[in-house]
Every structure is written in structure tokens, then in C-alpha cells.
Sequence to fold (158 residues):
Amino acid sequence: MPVPQSIQHFLGDQHVSFSVIHHRPAYTAQEEAAITRVPGRQWAKTVACFADGRPILAVLPAASLIDIERLRAVTGAENVRLANEQEFEGLYPDCETGAMPPLGPLYGQRVYVDRVLGDAKEIVFHAGSHSDAIRLSYEDFVRLVQPTLGDFAGRAGH
Fold:
């Protein structure tokens, strides 16, 4: 599946310079980071969640896990939960299940980014499929998405 037109138009309309990385199919952020030879701290894993019933996107480094309590504090919500796969289809109809990009404005959603990603000059993330990724400058990403920064990433195994 090529990069969906909606994603290409969203980036193009905002005059953002980006590149597409085509790769063999991969289904976890860490696997995609390895296949594309992108350091895990630059691979922006996108996790769909609900905060007080509203869809949001949480974005964190590939090897990290979400600390739901810390994300709840960052969002100011009473309740935060992960979205389930059945919910993905309705929220991201132009994307393969679980391959949504962290482009919240495209989907009418707020975006929360873990501060660790802010150390990267560039970030790479799903481009709507499990075999394409988008690389762009972190500065352009922030300008496009206007995320809320916070500390909500935990390390795998902790």
C-alpha cells in the first residue's frame, strides 16, 4: 500500500519537506526502526488512546512503553486508555491497522509527545502502512502538529 493521499496532501499543503522510506513489512516500532536503520530514539511510535472518551495520539520512542498514569497527568484527563484494534478502522480509515502516523490534526486529534523525542533532529514514523515510513525534521513535525510535550514513556521491561 502506498502512502495514502490524505497523508501526502496534508504534508504537501503545509509545505513540509519529507522523504518516504519503503521497507519490507514490519509490525512493531522496534522492528521497523531496525529494518530502516533508524535509531530507536528517532522512531516515533504512535499509540492511539482515549482521554476522557476522546481519541488522542501518544508519540514516544520505539523501545518505550506508555506509562498510562503519567500520560493521564500530562493530558489532564480523568481516564486514559489504549484504543483497541476495532477502533483503529474508524479513526484512521486510510491506514493499515496500527500504522497510523502521528499527524493528529489530519484526524482531528490532539497529539502528546514524550520529551525524549525532542532530542532528535529528525523523526521517522509510520506512513499509513507497515511497509512505508516518513522521515521529516522534528522542527517541522512540531510546527505541523503542535503537540503537547510531556514525560510519559517508560522503558520496556520496567
